[in-house]
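This part of the workshop introduces the protein records we will be handling. The question running through the whole workshop is how a given chain folds. To make this concrete, we reproduce a full record directly below:
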Amino acid sequence: MSAKTAHTSRPWRENIEAITMAIVVAILLKYFIVEAYKIPTGSMQPTLMGNTDTGIFDRVLVDKLSYHYRDPERWEVAVFKYPLNRTKNFIKRIVGMPGEELMIRHGDLWTRTPGEGEWTILRRPRPVQLEVWKELETARNWKPSPGTSGWSLSENGLRARGNGSMRFPRDGSAIMDNYTDGYPGDTPSKIRHRAGRSGQHAVGDLRLAGTLTALPGLEELVLEFKEGRRSYRFSLPGPAADPQATARVSATLGTGQVDLLEASGRFPFRLAAGEAVEIDAQNMDDLLSLRVAGDVLLELEIAPATHQAASIAIHALGENGADSADSANGSGADLDELRVFRDIYYLSDNVKVWNWPIPEGHYVVLGDNTQDSADSREWTFARYEVRPEVGSDEVQVLRGDYRPRENPIVLPGGEDGPQIFLRDEWGELHTFPGRLARKLAPTQASLVPRELVVGRAVLVFWPMAPSLSVYRMHWVH
């Protein structure tokens, strides 16, 4: 072969090698390192959107490498092969861990060692909290209390002048688990939901956040959360307070026994006049916490509440009172970017399972869209005992994901009775006549085995829907 021939043939070989290596690398990336998924359903909304009403279907990057070296952790959003049909991939939040007992009670998640001891509420880390808080519509939903003057609504908050208070919601009703709470942009008006699943439960876990600018005459600003007969008060001393004043959080439980719990700051604290500072108060998972400028100032544990009808009020007290409401040096404050949130209220009524003993090597998973999620509370196997012919001793038990009107499908038949179509847990479709089958009692299949967990969702990177003011790009927690 001449030198010229060898030279002209080399680019073909190099191109083939490059293409082959690219394919190999792509396959390795997809199956072992990272893969992009499209969210097809709304079970994780609004954390992950998959909604036909709006046409918004999130694309997420899934880390498949980490779980080769470690086990999944609680609160991670995981992709796994659906135990009732392993040809499908599902995505949910891991809430129950191997070797524990898990329970839903009063909208919260509780854990204990199986069959032993007291139940302990599960508390989510801060990044997960920020992911699951559902922002409420607050525009025109604040109302001054009787006797309050000089207080008004601004474009995105409140303008408080003089002593007084303002409450949310304005009609004094409880904050409920409305289905479209927390949805992004202008999507709430487009979202449909299942009848009877919205606004059925009062939600006690709330959060109030905003930017506070105190006037010189402000002595104290109080953020009050009410839950049933209880009152939780976050008290911030103002510029006119005693120099040795401290921030406080207190809980009046309304039990008639140990009625008052209180925690005070370890150091003197006063708001500075005219200085904007971020404030963030919340009641979540039976823990009251107050953050100022991003730092935790106070925390107070409380006992669980059985009556969760909740609302919020803001109170201001000043040295000059309402008489100086129009004075720049009077009492009061500006609260800008004021936002109210509620927590997920995990449903335990009208579901099949709400208490799980979890064996080693298995997990319980729930969707963030608790009102419309097929998850560990609902998964059920439909089962049939099938014989090859009448009177045969040979029996095969078939089982598959029970979905009303979808699986199994039973069609009228002739001499052999109805025809039954059942897709089993491996995705295989079985067809058999009713006269050769006996329907067995369904069985719950709530758990996800470790070997079926594929990876964890780490990033939403698409889509964008400017017409709905939706721009989907964020880390998943």
Notes: Residues 134-342 form a domain with the Jelly Rolls fold (CATH 2.60.120.200). The longest helix spans residues 3-33.
